[in-house]
Write a structure and sequence with these properties.
With 294 residues, the protein is α+β, with helices and mostly antiparallel strands. 44% of the residues lie in helices and 21% in strands.
């Protein structure tokens, strides 16, 4: 293998230098200025100690606030929020007890308990959007016969009283009960509640003595905080005077509600206890005869 051509001279293959053997003074000055500019561009300004201390203090305060808030919500308020969560998925409804029966002195029954159904409004379950709520109200109106505006006015009046709900219509007909049950999934916020109404025998002769039952008003709720909103209370006569003895003790049932408002599970948490009967010294037949003679 030959590296050089034959007969050639090595002097013809000299390596040429590409750099200058001498440096001019102007080039030295230019390089020095360029170096100064590069060093100046890399120079970092120190943070003011006062600003740094303020930043540290604010950061520590923010951390303390976040930790304190987290502790407050997760530890101190844990029970309250857990209770609210349970209330959102569980509804408590009354199981009304059999009210005590009233008899004359010969054990002749003067009043009967008759099962009935009421339509109750639960504010927390009503649709939040106005359009959806209006559709539900119109559907309820078509079933029970109340005008939509009348239903809205009732809801507004009871909302101002800060109540959880109220009875919109009581003693529903069997036809209305069946229609409401069929539409239950499409009428959130409206539920059917079993109740009891009193049927008085010969009420024309004994109404002044027996009195009657009525819905709870604001004063009744204030005086009887353990009563349910859908419960009835004695208003006059013996029904009022012996209210505590006749009422008994209502039970409670818990109904689990899913996200769509449908009932999933029902549990009886407290059984109802019937009220005490009342035997009068009045003779029914004699009372009627005397009344007719007068």
């Amino acid at each position: 293998m030959e590296f050089f051509p034959k007969g050639g001279k090595l002097n013809n293959y000299r390596i040429k230098r590409t750099f200058k053997e001498s440096i001019e003074p102007e080039e030295i000055l230019l390089d020095a200025k360029k170096s100064d500019r590069l060093e100046g561009s890399k120079l970092e300004l120190p943070i003011n100690p006062g600003v740094f201390r303020i930043f540290v203090v604010l950061s520590m305060l923010l951390i303390i606030v976040l930790v304190g808030r987290s502790f407050y919500l997760q530890v101190i308020k844990e029970g309250q929020y857990a209770k609210l969560s349970d209330q959102n998925k569980t509804r408590v409804y009354p199981i009304f007890s059999q009210r005590g029966i009233i008899y004359d002195q010969f054990s002749t029954q003067l009043v009967y308990n008759v099962p009935s159904f009421d339509l109750e409004v639960i504010f927390n379950d009503l649709p939040k959007k106005e359009e959806e709520r209006q559709l539900v109200i119109e559907k309820i109106s078509s079933i029970i016969g109340l005008a939509p505006q009348e239903i809205e006015d009732e809801i507004y009046q009871y909302l101002k009283k800060n109540q959880a709900g109220f009875v919109l219509s009581d003693n529903l007909s069997q036809e209305n009960v069946l229609r409401l049950e069929a539409e239950a999934a499409d009428i959130p916020g409206f539920v059917i509640v079993k109740n009891i109404v009193r049927q008085y025998v010969d009420g024309f002769y004994f109404s002044h003595l027996l009195g009657y039952l009525g819905r709870l008003n604001s004063q009744d709720l204030q005086n009887n905080p353990d009563y349910f909103l859908t419960e009835k209370i004695g208003k006059q006569g013996l029904e009022l005077f012996y209210e505590e003895e006749l009422r008994g003790q209502p039970g409670k049932k818990e109904i689990e509600i899913d996200a769509l408002g449908s009932e999933k599970k029902e549990t009886i948490s407290q059984q109802p206890a019937a009220g005490h009967g009342l035997i009068l010294t009045v003779d029914k037949n004699l009372q009627i005869k005397l009344f007719d003679e007068l």
